[in-house]
User: Fold this.
Amino acid sequence: MKKRILALALALCMAFSLVPMGQAEGVFTDVPESAFFYEPVMWAVENGITTGTSNDTFSPADLCVRAHIVTFLWKANGSPKAEKVVNPFMDVKEGNYWYDAAMWALENGITNGVAEYQFGSAAPCTRAQLVSFLYAAAGKPEYTIDNPFVDVAEGTFYYDAALWALEEGITAGTSATTFSPSKTISRAEAVTFLYKAQPTLEDKVEAAVDAYWADIDNQLKTGAGYPHGAEGMGAVVLAIKDGKVILNKAYGYAHYYDAAEGSDYWNPTYEKIANPREMKVDTMFDLASVTKVMATTQTIMLLVDRGLLDVNDTVNKHWPEFTGDGKENITVAQLLTHSSGLPQWEATFLYCDTHEEQMKYIEGLKIVPEYRTDGGEPKYSDFSFMTLAFMAEKITGVPMEQFVQENIYEPLGMTRTTYVPLENGFTKEDCAATSLGNPYEYRMVDEENWNVGYDCTKDAEAFKAFTGWRNYTLIGEVNDGNCGMGGGGIAGHAGLFSTASDLGILLQCMLDGGKYIDADGNEQQLYSEETVKLFTTKHTCYAENHGGSLSEEFGYGFKLDQSWMGKSATENVFGHDGFTGTTVFADPDNDYIFVCLTNKMQCGFRTATSNNYYNTNSWASWNMNQAVKDVLGI
Assistant:
């Protein structure tokens, strides 16, 4: 992907038009549509980089001097003013049309002129000079291509520029083996070189996100107050606009720290490993609560779409053992909106070792009356989605992880999405590391020494007797304790592993009304557009009780209009986030998808006693999403 300095990345939107009234596309008699320079000329005229030589001629064969070329490049970069440079050139005077351009080029290291006190304004501009100007304006990026040109010698001022221009498709030379560096550039060639050097949308997006990531360590230290910054963290960021991937890039490390030998369960000591493993775009992440919408909610959507379930059904209708203390009256819709009255969280791992034992535990849960709000005051509950998964298994007769794999992931070609990846053909090298054991959950249940999260006083004896704590780096093993230590790595609220690309496929299917293209190239329907709308429409009324705040508004399963979705998000935007540092959302208003997967837990707690991991929703995800949106203008 082309690397561009910010000014060049903004060329199209900043360049002002100098085209005379009435001069528009198609007026030049010497620019036929079949010419190699037709589109570049139209682009240059439309963006005010150059006009024609008369009302109906462009004069493509006319040769250019250095004053022409530096002015073209300056205008393509938005005609910025030089701020600090003092004019050293005797042949550049204030009032010359190329004065500001020459000063800008000098200040930005694009050219120093042809000799002391001489810019060479009237000197012919060669192919070597033009590619050197473009290369310098682009920040002299790296290239990997071998030199095919017999007339481009290593050590010449244009050597790197010529090879970079070849690799970027700006010019292929004048033959397979010649570049013709001394050949004077024509107007047609000049605008063509400039046109081909212009950044793509992908370039602009990548540059914007790169710029944020380059400063993320400082952002976290100074803005978020995390003393050790972002060291050890990695991310994969995916953005899709109008069905096209415009960014899919990995940053940082997938595995950086391990726990020092003898570390405490509740406060592990972090040691940098000898060879930190870099993040890759196909790295699989522990999605944490994103599981709720990428696995469990997807299963419920299919069951509703196929007529096997209604959101107004009681759970008890499909799972008769789910009864007692009023649980028999809980509906599917109430579970999907976190309004059922079930507890938010309990340490099931202290009492359960298997999936089946967790099902029995849930059958014995007691209702919390004030949590049954029918959407007015949702109480976010892991038990809601654990319950939905067990109910789905009763309906389908197969484990939920099998149902979702066979009916969603496989048809969509989501080949790197699964529960318990280490048991399903993947290795630790495929997965991003998360926490060093479960220090957060240890602190949650250790009521004598910590005051974290929910009241676990009733679990004191079970906590003292529990011997299943993990004291190693979790890689390919789910972080969530109730899922990992209590449920065999499979649950409705956590446990799914996936990649940014796979999640983008599923979100795009939803934006496309449930349609997808199968492996044979045929259009298929996963579920109906009506089902998508049913699940992504607001079904809670939290805002009415909280001054318009949408922070706890839900569709069925999906969170709506969260702050981390960006400034332009509305209640039509749906997605979810996860405790491990994962966020996904789709924006139907703008046909836009954003996925940010981080392994924030590799950085550890904010401080040894803070009980908080990094809030990547507010920093990494929000800022990188906003950087993309700013480029897109949404």
